Amino acid sequence: MDKTVNQKAWFLVLPVFLVVAFSAILPLMTVVNYSMQDTFGNNQFFWNGVGWFKELLDPSTDLGGRFFASLWRNLFFSAVILAIEVPLGIVVALSMPRDGWTVAACLVILALPLLIPWNVVGTIWQIFGRPDIGLLGYVLNHIGLNYNYVSNDLDAWATVIVMDVWHWTSLVALLCYAGLKSIPDAYYQAAQIDGASRWAVFTAIQLPKMNRVLLIAVLLRFMDSFMIYTEPFVVTGGGPGNSTTFISIELVKIALGQFDLGKAAALSLVYNLIIIIVCWVFYTVMTNAGAERRDTKGVA
Amino acid sequence: MARIDLVDLAHSYGGNAAAPESFALKPVTMTWRQGGAYALLGPSGCGKTTLLNLISGIVTPSRGKIRFDGVDITPLSTQKRNIAQVFQFPVIYDTMTVGQNLAFPLRNRGVAQREIDARVAEIARLLDLTPYLDRKATRLTADAKQKISLGRGLVRSDVAAILFDEPLTVIDPELKWQLRSKLKALHRALDLTMIYVTHDQTEALTFADTVVVMHDGRVVQSGTPAELFDKPAHTFVGYFIGSPGMNIVPAVVSGREARIDGHTIRLDRNYDGLPAGARIEIGVRPEFVDVAPPGSGLLLANIERIDDLGRVRFARVRIGDAKFAARVPPGFSIPGNEAGLVFDPSHVHVYADSILVEGK
Questions:
Q1: Nearest CA to B333 among B298, B292, B297?
Q2: Looking at the domain assignment, is residue A7 inside a domain?
Q3: Any chain A CB within 8 A of the CB of B145?
Q4: What is the mean pLDDT of the segment spanning B104-109?
């Protein structure tokens, strides 16, 4: 039988195509367009080819220097918060009750920080840490610690990190708790019979069974912290100096502060590319882990 | 190596104060012989897993005592009891190899490495796991995983009893009998007490030399497969074991006679002095009732259908309201849909309130 030719089917994908075009493709293409040009205001643009990209990837230039400095800051920040939030989240999940009404209470308390809007979190900590009227800042200074996140780099970093830990450890804890809940009782009973210590139960059963959710937690927390903007912007505004200026803050400074649309566009494309590559790496690792699991199920 | 005594052991998940009828395990006193192969048989929710978990120490009894070789171990934790348990779903430690899985209980108990290696090698050989010792345990099939679970129990030289909680549930049918015969061989070789929980009568009857039948939180009978078949102590045992199960029909019994539906069946023993007011039933296995051409002196029944099980045929008949199964003798064909029933009097049992009454 001959295949019916009916091109009208294209009309069915047209709405989706239009929505995607206006929401994603056209804005992205505009950015690509800007990244190849330079502007001196007056809506006049001059072709610059890959000039901005060359400058961006060369640390000796002003643009490149700022990009790499903020990139290292961002990576360092992500590494620190992952190193704190993942173990802390696991500890919180392990110490949560397994049943009874306390479970619901714990879940609600843990979920609270996650429900607070980013800029409110920033504002809370901005006020909390102020040496004059903030509870934390006042107390620290009162007991003799010279704490001031506006003037001291280390204090600014500590504030931003503690704020992120406060805001997001719950997410890791909730994911880990879900992973722990899915372990059948028989595993704990078998471990008891095998005479396993608390630590052996953790390393032999709980950690391997939390594998998958931990990967998801690491992925989410890495992406979120790598794209962080609002909270440090509200608390420190990227300062003191440039010490807490992350890539997104740098980007906004270039694009809206200096109105260097070309440089900002080039930076945002590279930023985007880094995120996509990291996502892809995580996705591949995670699906491979999943495939391994499915593979063993098939055999069983 | 131990004899296990249960003394007035009972458990309620609602605590000791719960109503006696709600107990998951009603008080039981019994002895498990050292080296015996026992099966705990009963439908879901009859308390068999509760009993198993009480012995292994996963659950602490509401009342009563458990003794291993006369020593009260009721307050001891699971680790301190010399038992191993194999669960319904294979429990293996994902990140470890087969060898590391087998070594885990010994390592936890601080056994010397040289001894661990020797034990693991020996047990792997017993369970045919030697070729897999260096493989990741997650990559094995369900039956191999169950063998690893079992192996983790066997490596411990101090293990007195191995408890199995429906261990063949997730095993493919063709591998089930292999694993079961492996268990029997191990039992003979190792002189260990084995307690095997199942709801499958074939598994129970082929594995165990003593089958303990449980019903509604109570041990209703404990005996060899032959005893359970020939002389069920409770009507539940009668129809739970055997395929088809025992025929149980209400009857009026006096002396050496039972009357069903106005018809008299001769009994081998004298049943005078049955408790007054009790619900009296007679029970007879389909294997001991033959279908015959309707004739005088025979209990008449309506044939509903005939099940051909290959080696033997059973007629499903009806006497009044009561359903009945009876053997159809080889080569026998029934002219109409009415037939007479011929009972073997020595295998007709009398039950008062579901409990077997011994005739004189």
A1: B292
A2: no
A3: yes
A4: 88
A253: in domain: yes
CATH number where A127 lies = 1.10.3720.10
Task: Classify residue B256 by its DSSP letter.
Answer: T
Instruction: Please check whether residue A146 lies inside any domain of the structure.
Output: yes
Contact B139 A296 (CB under 8 A): yes
Look at strands B63-68 and B37-41 and give their pairing.
Answer: unpaired
In Å, how far are A74, B107, B150, B327 from B112, measured between CA atoms? Answer: 49, 8, 21, 62
Residue type, A29: M
Is residue A6 situated within a structural domain? no
Residue A284 Cα, gap to closest chain B Cα (Å): 20
Q: Could you give the 3-state DSSP secondary structure of residue A239?
A: coil
Separation between Cα atoms, residue B94 and residue B220, nearest integer Å: 40
Q: Which two tokens stand for residue B295?
A: 């004739």
A182 touches chain B (CB under 8 A): no
Residues A35 and A266: their CA atoms lie apart, in Å, by 5
Query: Exposed/middle/buried for B151, CB within 10 Å: 0-12, 13-18, 19+?
Result: buried
Q: Cα dist. B121→B100, B115, B126, B148, B160 in Å?
A: 11, 10, 9, 13, 20
Inter-chain CB pairs, A–B, below 8 Å:
63
Chain A environment of B105 (Cβ under 8 Å): 193-195
Interface subset of B 302-341, CB within 8 angstroms of A:
none
- How much is the pLDDT for A20? 93
**Gap from B95 CA to chain A (nearest CA, Å):** 7
The residues, any chain, with a CB within 8 Å of residue A114's CB and separated by 6 or more, are A167, A168, A170, A171
Q: Count of domains in chain A?
A: 1
* Test mutation, A189, A192, A194, A201, chain B, max B CBs within 10 A: A194
pLDDT single digits (tens) A170-214: 999 999 999 999 898 889 988 888 888 889 899 889 988 888 888
Does ipTM exceed 0.95?
A: no
Whole-number pLDDT of residue A1 = 61
A16-46 pLDDT, tens digit per residue, is 999 999 999 999 998 898 888 887 777 777 8
Distance of alpha carbon A230 from alpha carbon B254, whole angstroms: 92
Measured from the Cβ of residue A121, the count of other Cβ atoms closer than 10 Å reads 20
Domains of chain B: 4-234 (3.40.50.300), 243-357 (2.40.50.140)
Nearest chain B residue to A300, by CA: B141
Query: Cβ contacts of residue B240 below 8 Å, gap of 6+?
Result: B41, B42, B43, B201, B213, B215
Q: Are B291 and B329 in contact (CB under 8 A)?
A: yes
The pLDDT value recorded for residue B271 is: 84
Cβ B188 vs Cβ B161: under 8 Å: no
**Would you call A58 an interface residue with chain B, using a CB distance cutoff of 8 Å?**
no
- Chain B residues whose beta carbon lies within 8 Å of the beta carbon of residue A197: 108
* Owning domain of residue A198: 53-291
